Amino acid sequence: MTRQRAAEEKEQWNDTRNLRQKINRHNEKVFDRESARGDKDWAKQDAAQDTFDKCQQSANVNAYWEPNTLRCLDRRTELPIRLRPLEREDLRFVHQLDNNASVMRYWFEEPYEAFVELSDLYDKHIHDQSERRFVIDCNGVNAGLVELVEIDHIHRRAEFQIIITPEFQGKGLASRAAKLAMDYGFTVLNLYKLYLIVDKENDKAVHIYKKLGFIVEGELIHEFFINGQYRDAIRMCIFQQQFLAQKTPEKTLLKPTAQ
């Protein structure tokens, strides 16, 4: 090993050690997982993230911010994900999600669907150009679904939807998968606008969407009937130019294969 190579490795090791030390100091100052989940003081969380960003920049080492736990992780320990087109063999996985009440409440859907009905829908829409449905693949395990539906190629818009399985929630996958799908919609499909509808009381989701760049378009009064009562919803959107302007390269994220 040359002297220059040895010096470079020593410098890299020192950078990594310094980052870990700063991460540990930062983690000591933030809330634990339980308090973070119940904390709606988003300004406090944003301030903590700003502190981490400065830490990362000063160490010049790639790291990962985990917002749900207010903790920082080395990006090399981050779960790798990719989006792949929904296939017939994924229908059992989709069927499980469709019948999970805790999951489907985020899509304002009844948690009931027969497998044969789901299979028929798949056959009916397999060549439908008005939708793109992807499975979120995390190390070979299905972690959720992300969809672009109601695609209008004339007006260049589509509705965005995402579901993360309960066992993968709280790991930062939602934001990363959303960015992949948004990138696909704006750069591959050349859409002008993506929009979504979210429960007005789902503060956590609204906050994440705003961090992704979505803005509130309006409020829908008594839009959905869930658990015996009507609920208000918020429609949010993001435009192609806005997304591309704020886009930064993510080397760890794999772009989905075109359907």
TrEMBL record:
Gene3D superfamilies in the record, alphabetically? 3.40.630.30
Q: Where is the composition biased (Basic and acidic residues)?
A: 1-18, 25-44
Q: What is this protein called?
A: Spermidine N(1)-acetyltransferase
Question: Any idea which GO molecular function terms this record carries?
Answer: diamine N-acetyltransferase activity; metal ion binding
Q: To which species is this protein native? A: Beauveria bassiana D1-5
Q: Does the keyword Metal-binding apply?
A: yes
Q: Where in the cell is it found?
A: Cytoplasm
Q: PANTHER family, alphabetically?
A: SPERMIDINE N(1)-ACETYLTRANSFERASE
The chain positions of domain N-acetyltransferase read 81-241
Write out the entry's keywords from A to Z: Acyltransferase, Cytoplasm, Magnesium, Metal-binding, Signal, Transferase
Instruction: Kindly indicate whether the keyword Signal belongs to this entry.
Output: yes
Pfam family example for this protein? DUF1283
- Which CDD domains does this chain map to? NAT_SF
Q: Which InterPro entries match?
A: Acyl_CoA_acyltransferase, DUF1283, GNAT_dom
Gene Ontology CC entries for this record: cytoplasm
Region ranges (Disordered) = 1-45
